[in-house]
Amino acid sequence: MRKSRRFVLLAVVAALPFATITPAAATRTDLPTPPPWLKVENGVSQPQFDLANAIEETLFVQTTVDSDLDGKRDRVRLKLSRPGETRTRGLKVPVIFEHSPYRYNIGGGANHNVDFSVLPQEGVQPNGKSAAAALGTTIAKPKPDLPGGLDNYWVPRGYAVVLGESIGTGFSDGCPTVGDDKETQGTKAIIDWLNGRAQAWNEAGEPVAADWTTGDVGMTGTSYNGTLPNQVATTGVEGLRTIVPVSAIASWYDYYRANGLVRAPHSNVSGVGTNDFQGEDLDVLGYFVEGPDRVAKCAHVTDALLQYADRTTGDYNAYWRARDYLRQAKNIKASVFVVHGLEDYNVMPHAFASWWSQLEKYNVPRKIWLHKGGHGGPGGVTDYQRTLNRWMDHWLFGVDNGIMTEPTADVQRPDGTYEKYADWPVPGAKATTLRLAAQNATEPGTLSTKAPSGPKPRQSFTDRGRELDTDVSLLPNPDVANPNRLAYLSAPLPKAAHLSGTPSVSLRASVDNRYAANLTAVLVDYGPDGQTTVTRGWTDVQNRKAVDKSTPIQQGAEYTFTWPLEPDDYVFAAGHRVGLVIVSTDMNFTLRPLPGTELTVFPAKSSVTLPVVGGKLGV
Fold first, then answer.
1. What is the total count of domains within the chain?
2. How far is Cα 295 from Cα 106, in angstroms, rounded to an integer?
3. 272-322: pLDDT as tens digits
4. Domain match, 146 and 257 both
5. Which domain holds residue 76?
């Protein structure tokens, strides 16, 4: 969640198959009426107010929570900017609201050690010292004007902009509880104030009412700032008409864990290169956003974040459940415009895909924009900014600009162009199962839609993931046997294949000399010019039955391990081969035991399932 440098991963892909486009879900009928003063051209609000005349205020809003347990309800600070005409002409305007834990005075704390003799599920304590965290030099420092550029863009168009500071961060009261209901309620309080349901005071201690606003609010933000809109939307708070979460979390468990495995978010696009976030967890993030001055005061919060996040088993529990917004999606009343990078391995694609699925389940008015970059928004894309402008105009001003009758999904291709689809995954994507097979115990195997025939050997490999970077050392040369991974490849594809959705792996395997092990699967596109990592996924062998319960394994006993990979939308070009690489420890993502864990796979009873548009691969 801490901001990181963004890169764009380019790959050569074939032309996409045509998809039929149908209208988006029906909109709700309680939209505002556009005010007569609003300047609109071609369905988009235009700049009409001079930013130099904007009114800026710093206020403190009363919340309903006491996160630092000092006996007083926390107040959260905000800065706002609104058109001067809200005073001189009495105009009432809607609000673009970004809340953040990153405003001021951040830093401190160290990442957890991830190097172990054996995995902690086996009861062995970590060895070595904690790795130093790469703490945020990328967060914007205070400026004389409002931080960032939201006010520069939206205020001239007739919106107010509110920048809030999360409980326990910046100049707000309290302690940062990282994702729970207290943080949610602390954010919601600002929307309540904008709608006359909460109190606020200026820096002189004078009460201030939000009598200049319509009370209609659109929340937005990126990363943690984008997660807070998800949180608040699940409260169903009156006045929140829409949210635009960018690279946002839907479940904190999925951010720091994967199928029972303690797994780190990555600071780089696509997981390639050194990961500065290895060992980060809820408590580390809490230390980071509270800043060094609150460490003693907020120890009761950060200590609990460490204790109950459970870095030993990695199991889902009540603490994670309290930070899981997927189960609360039924309460959402706002519309949602989801924006995410398909190469985001910080807040990984599972976050947007799981959230999107819940929005569909509960018939939430929605739109999705998927770009080919990493963590953050689609920078420099004019059509995206125009689309965002139209979205806010529709939901906050009631402009009838047709945004909700257009295709629901925009998906970017590596050449920078976008394809429009009726939904995501792309309609017509069907589960296509490729079966693993091998001719002997050592040579790389095959992937085919046909059931394996001939020999059915088992294949073994030894984990050296602490010493070997998966992408650098274990993905290349898939046609050559490697004692530290297993590789399975399809025949060259007779035509382009469009993957859209969530792949999964089912592996019949055993752990031969340990009682715990990581399992990692990487889906790879092997072409004439080298390989491209498409997606990857991880699981804990002890969580094969349930994510909330570890079940011991027996050494040498075969089990069926089934787990999802990260969702993607990707086109394999004609002539390329689909590859599946199986490793144990993934250096830049998982906990790292000493090398030597031995695993055996039974390919004849293993498979990978891909959501393919049209359902056919021809291999």
1. 2
2. 11
3. 778 899 999 999 999 999 999 999 999 999 999 999 999 999 999 999 999
4. yes
5. 48-340
Query: Is 370 a domain residue?
Result: no
Catalytic residues: 223, 344, 375
Contact 441, 458 (CB under 8 A): yes
Q: Is the peptide bond before 83 cis (omega within 30 degrees of 0)?
A: no
Cα–Cα distance between 421 and 409 in angstroms, integer? 5
pLDDT, position 109: 74
DSSP of 471-533: IIIISS-TTS--TT-EEEEPPPPSS-EEEEE--EEEEEEEESS-S--EEEEEEEEEETTEEEE
Closest by CA position to 592, among listed 47, 114, 26: 114
Is 242 among the domain residues?
yes
Domain shared by 445 and 328, yes or no? no
Query: In this structure, what token pair is assigned to residue 563?
Result: 């787990």
| Mean pLDDT along residues 187-197 | 98
Ranges assigned E (strand) in 33-130? 40-41, 44-45, 55-62, 75-82, 93-100, 115-116
**First vs last C-alpha separation in the chain:** 40
* 255: its two tokens: 């951010």
Within a domain: 414: no
Distance CA 521, CA 489 (A): 13
Instruction: Give a yes or no: residue 383 inside a domain.
Output: no
DSSP secondary structure code for residue 397 in this structure: I
Output the DSSP codes for 116-134.
ESS-GGGTPPP-SPPPPP-
Give me 226's structure tokens: 């984008």
- Long-range pairs, 204-213, Cβ under 8 A, ≥24: 208/57, 208/59, 212/82, 212/86, 212/87, 212/91, 212/92, 212/93, 212/160, 213/82, 213/86, 213/92, 213/93, 213/94, 213/95, 213/160
